[in-house]
Amino acid sequence: MHVAIAGNIGAGKTTLTKLLAKHYKWEPQFEDVLENPYLEDFYNKMERWSFNLQVYFLNSRFRQILEIRESGKNIIQDRTIYEDAFIFAPNLHAMGLMSNRDFKNYSSLFDLMESVTTGPDLLIYLRSSIPNLVAQIHSRGRDYENTISIDYLSRLNERYEAWIATYNKGNLLIIDVDNINFVDNPEDLGEIINKIDAQINGLF
Question: Domain Deoxynucleoside kinase spans what residues (predicted)?
Fold first, then answer.
């Protein structure tokens, strides 16, 4: 089984991935942030490095999808290939931070990858307000994230909501994370697990 967690920067994807992997004894697949050689450069000069960054993420996540399929294991994935293609890359293009030529090339590459892959059995979307995202980003203290603007996060949030409204790749569970604390409150985590159990039971 393939479960994936989607959500904006700072929504809590990685943390929830770890907690659910531990609870269900699923194998976690994390976003390739620490190993990404473009991330810091991108946040310092977005226009120069946007295409490189997005192609790196696309390649990394496509490889993950192939590994998930071949492994035959129950896997939970931190962020999906769809978020790169439907949210981050189009947003950079719309902001004038990725050229028409690069975006066309990127989109063509994604279309080819999507034609040979399938969506996760269950997608969990972590819905969050901008103030909550900002608080989470500041609390984790990654230097390169200090330059992320509220405008940038707002644009991403709008695209996330538009994507989720038309999502049709499989089962979808939406969790509003503004008023819950699944890290420190076992009851909140338990509530999420109950909702996931109901979705999983419906899959079989």
Answer: 4-199
Helix/strand/coil for 148: coil
Say if residues 26 and 71 touch (Cβ distance below 8 Å).
no
* Catalytic residue annotation: 78
Tens-digit pLDDT profile for residues 130-170: 999 988 887 776 766 666 788 989 999 999 999 999 999 99
User: How many H helices and E strands in the chain?
Assistant: 9, 5
CATH of the domain at 169: 3.40.50.300
Q: What is the pTM of this model?
A: 0.90
Kindly tell me the burial class for residue 186, based on how many C-beta atoms sit within 10 Å of its own C-beta (0-12, 13-18, 19 or more). exposed
Domain count, the chain: 1
Query: Which residues have a Cβ under 8 Å from the Cβ of 152 and sit 6 or more positions away?
Result: 91, 95
